[in-house]
């Protein structure tokens, strides 16, 4: 088969397993391998990191083979390159034998065409099923006669942390449709979306700017950059990554040259992490918490214009699945707690700033 389509639930080892396969094939064949994702920051935090982690775990990593500036790694006469669609010269560059499109539903169909025309061998794709029956993967890929579909779920991952398993399985009772997508890895229908007014933009405007921070470890840690202009909210994901210790997070913030003057409004439930970030010289404070603060912070965002940059794929994925809970057939004023790390970072920071300036709905 020309295309191997890996469809599955959240945390089902799709990306990790394909990276393992590429490393194994690199030992056997002299060829160019390409691992692509829509945006470079997401690529660095996912497949690129997994690939290098596998090399180190099996003790075959050699720094002499690693071109960090070009994001490539050689094994013998084979090379694996890591590219993003915004690197136009690489998308239309060398021919490759093997292609892996990581998080394929982030790409558009033209991206697929450009990449596939320069691939002589197999194309591997992984994705979580969405609620969009008209996505190009559904209409143009699954309908081909040279596609093999591999289905997996989180149960196929023997190394998954218990906390993550519990979070996924809570969806069985909390939301049957999200359970279909993220638990069973099949098409679901997302209703009762909380945010429907958001829009995509290419560039952030100038305005009152600050950061929002939501802590995680097995779940993603998210640092978002927020700009307020004319009461509208503009957001961009800066860090969105799992398995980050506080030391890792601080190192990334230093590497990204996050301003130590700009305010970082962080999840108040982890004061120890906030203190450590403060000690590293960052202007980090706790977000406001209180009775009904989640609902109030959602209302705050819903009352403003809400814009997200196109190069924030995880933010877009969260917005397309962020919905109200249902109980006994009735919608309640509480969001389903799943895939909400960017939105938690944004709403907590905006709500805290609004309370301070008196713009919050509490004061209207």
Overall average residue pLDDT: 92
H/I helix tally: 14
Look at the helices and sheets and give the structural class: alpha/beta
State the low-pLDDT regions, or none.
359-364
Sheet with the most strands, sense and barrel status: 8 strands, mixed
**Strand arrangement across the biggest beta sheet:** 3-4-5-2-6-7-1-8
How far apart are the termini?
61 Å
The CATH architecture category of the largest domain equals 2-Layer Sandwich
Looking at the structure, the CATH topology of the largest domain is Nucleotidyltransferase, domain 5
What's the helical proportion of residues? 25-40%
The level 1 CATH classification of the largest domain is: Alpha Beta
Report on this model:
There is one protein chain. With 364 residues, the chain is an alpha/beta fold. It has 2 domains: 3-156, Rossmann fold, CATH 3.40.50.300; 199-363, 2-Layer Sandwich (Nucleotidyltransferase, domain 5), CATH 3.30.420.280. The chain is built from 14 helices and 17 strands. It has an 8-stranded mixed β-sheet with strand order 3-4-5-2-6-7-1-8, sandwiched between helices. A 7-stranded mixed β-sheet has the order 9-15-12-11-10-13-14. Strand 3 (66-67) and strand 4 form a beta hairpin. Helix 1 (14-26) packs across helix 3 and helix 12 packs across helix 14. The protein is globular. The model is unreliable at 359-364 (pLDDT under 50).
